[in-house]
Design a protein that fits this description.
8 helices, 2 domains, alpha/beta
Length: 260
């Protein structure tokens, strides 16, 4: 049994079988939180990795575009561990196209998974958090919740919406022990981003290293990726006593992207 400061608490992290979500789940587990994982693909390996940190895990494969499945996941989490103390809304998808060519069904899917799912998990988690006088809601937005890029209309709209939802949730619970904040990463080297690097290298006939420099050079002055581990540590901070009065922020970890 882990003896970290989150020992005995439960964290539900959506989209957590890989990438940013898994990094955050592991960081919270290192502080003693039991973890409910969610996402597609292999979940047995992430579960074993997290259990090795001395905490309990559960998995629910809810499709985050479907409110009924989200409700089932929230009920499942409460049945497994009593309640969700820490909610991390991380699930997300991407589609790139000019607005006039953007497929309507892809717009609907991006908004559903990247924005509406966070509303559904939040509305269902809040009553138990409020009753317990403690809770942490962490929304993984994006640097695109603060600034825009071309051909990402749905993603940018959803992430700006997540920042807005974060602020409203924080204000509505400002006099309680429940806080809500957003993390806004720049480029993070997840499997999804690695595919973009690979595609750029192939399209331009250049090396992976050169493609990486091109990708970072377009937006990120630090010329380095943020890591899931770094984002996990920021999530841990939001859960700490030191962040008890950090409410409604959109905290960018972006290598200077928004500072330009």
């Amino acid at each position: 049994m882990s003896q970290g400061f989150l020992s005995g608490k439960t964290a539900l992290v959506t989209g957590s079988t890989s990438g940013i979500g898994l990094g955050i789940a592991k960081a919270l587990a290192r502080q003693g939180a039991n973890i409910v994982l969610n996402g597609f693909g292999d979940h047995a390996t992430p579960e074993k990795d997290i259990q090795a940190l001395g905490v309990k895990t559960a998995y629910h494969g809810a499709d985050m575009s479907k409110p009924a499945e989200i409700e089932d996941m929230m009920k499942f989490s409460a049945q497994q561990f009593g309640r969700v103390d820490i909610l991390v809304n991380n699930a997300g998808i991407q589609h790139v196209a000019p607005i006039e060519q953007f497929p309507v069904e892809r717009w609907d899917a991006v908004i559903a998974i990247n924005l509406s799912s966070a509303f559904h998990t939040t509305r269902l988690a809040l009553p138990a958090m409020q009753a317990a006088h403690w809770g942490r809601i962490i929304n993984v937005a994006s640097v695109h919740g603060l600034v825009a890029s071309v051909q990402k209309a749905a993603y940018v709209a959803a992430k700006h919406g997540i920042v807005g939802l974060t602020k409203v949730t924080a204000l509505e619970n400002a006099t309680t022990g429940v806080t809500c904040n957003a993390i806004c990463p720049g480029w993070v080297l997840t499997p999804l981003v690695q595919k973009q690097v690979d595609a750029k290298a192939t399209a331009l006939g250049i090396s992976n290293d050169e493609a990486t420099k091109l990708l970072l050079g377009e937006k990120e002055p630090s010329m380095q990726f943020t890591t899931p581990e770094e984002l996990g540590e920021l999530a841990v901070f939001f859960c700490s006593a030191a962040a008890g009065n950090v409410r409604g922020v959109a905290w960018n970890m972006d290598g200077g992207w928004v500072a330009q």
